[in-house]
Amino acid sequence: MRSPINPQAPGYSPVGLAEKEELVLRPLLAHDTQPSPGQRLKRKLSILLASGAVSLAVLFAFNILACNGTLFGIKPRPSELASPTPLQARDDQRSSGEEDCPCKPTSTVPDYFNTSPGPWIGKTATGKAPFMAQTRTFDHAATYVPNAPLQTQVPIQGWHPGNLSIFGMMGFLTPYTPSTGFGVDEWPLPDGAEIIWLQMVSRHGSRYPTGGSNVESFGARLANATGKFNATGELEFLNNWKYQMGTEILVPRGRQELFDSGVLHAYMYSSLYDPNTKIIARTTTQDRMLRSAENFLAGMFGLEWPNNVTLEVIIEGSNLNNSLAGYMNCPNEREDGLGSAARDIWVGHYLQNATERFSKLVTGYNWTLDDTYAAQTLCAYDTVASGYSRFCSLFTYEEWIGFGYSHDLQFYGNNAFGSETGRAIGIGFQQEVLARLQNHTIPYSETQVNVTLDNNTVTFPLNQSLYLDFSHDTNIVSILAAFGLTQFEEDLPADKYPGEHNFTVSHMTPFGARLDIEIIKTPKPLKADRSGYEDEGEETKYVHFVLNQRTVPLGWSHPECDAERVDGWCEFETFLKVQEKMPGLARYKEVCFADGGSP
Fold first, then answer.
1. Which residues span the membrane (predicted)?
2. Which of 237, 397, 590, 593 has the CB geometry, 3.0–4.6 Å to 158, for a possible disulfide?
3. Distance CA 114, CA 336 (A)
């Protein structure tokens, strides 16, 4: 039996609190030996250094194991690793003990729901901050029209009261405005009818120019001529002008366009949203696409929209499947320049006089047709970026008509029926809409559908009555072609303006454009002349296409839908039957990958 401690025994002394802590590191000594203070300090330092070295070694080994899954080439057995859930992203497959790992991702959200897409965000340079209160000019003696928020009341030679504003004829650079119509009147729902389903696809809002655009090149040419260049007359302001645009991201007007669109859709379709659910909306990784979606959702649901919507962000990159950017996986589309060639021919016609006019006002610089077209394009970009542009009044009203038509030629030949790949670019989205309408996922597709996402009801849900997607102007034009809307198929000459025509880009895909596909249920079949319901018949569903707040008459393109219908609707089953043949007309694999085109 161990002897009891005797406080009076030799070598024993009471131990204070500080010394108790010190004993943890003190080596075991015989009761009748006591270390000197120097020896005690030496031993403490040795033990501290040894403990520190062991700690560092353990930490180093832990980090190797946590980050690489191996330690000195030895991997843990699969049974020792926690199995991730099916929807966990690769970067999220870590245990709770690895919270401090330096390689741990900053987000536990799967890639396709991550709204900070990183390398896929595209170019994002911002431009000079606007200062319109100081930079704008106007005739103080004329009737004053306040800007709201852009100043679009500018003097245009040849414009008369009753003419369309030039800001409604700028092609794909047109600030959002409702379409003037597509040939039929708008009709309210008859008594007893109800909208039961909506698919929206929206373009992003007004933005800065894309990298390498003609306006950026124009600014560089003038900058290189500094010291030699001199302009007079209406071009005199160019002597002190500098190109200070950003690149591709939304401008304030663009944010407003999408926010306002969200507010409009809240008024139009909020009853289709079940407040007890959280829906999926889709966009792409480009910054302007992501921010457009966020501004729309804020407008529709409020700043707390993440409580209502999970935003699915699909990578937009070359050779990647993405129906919202269908051209990315159609290599031959990038080589198809028939529309661009037609545009260039037309520009040489309608801007010949303007080029001669401006050349006389410039010395020390060879002013070309490209400069004239870039200056006209700058009116549109400068206005949405800065609120006002001095480039706008340089051109006549007739030249603005020509400007809008130049984009009609470009889009028709590159992205619509004038291009062999036009239908193919939009066919993936067409297939997704039909899948949603027929309540099934897409396990296989010979289009640019992302099957990984579309064969999963988490990322491609089927139980929503409200679907919200965000895309690009060229893609939306191709979507219209993929649905077979041949009312937009027509001959557009490159050497003369044909007058009013159906394929007018300003009306189809301005900034913030939106296509709303409604499904409407009626208690009985509705008469084509809208005089009332048929006397007999059962509950009927109809499809209604609304592009920029105006009806696109489906019967004009598909006779099976009844061209005599004054409301432009198409009976639901008939619409599905008509759409079955669209993939065959698009010929995606053939036109996108033939003759050398490859992913």
1. 45-66
2. 397
3. 33
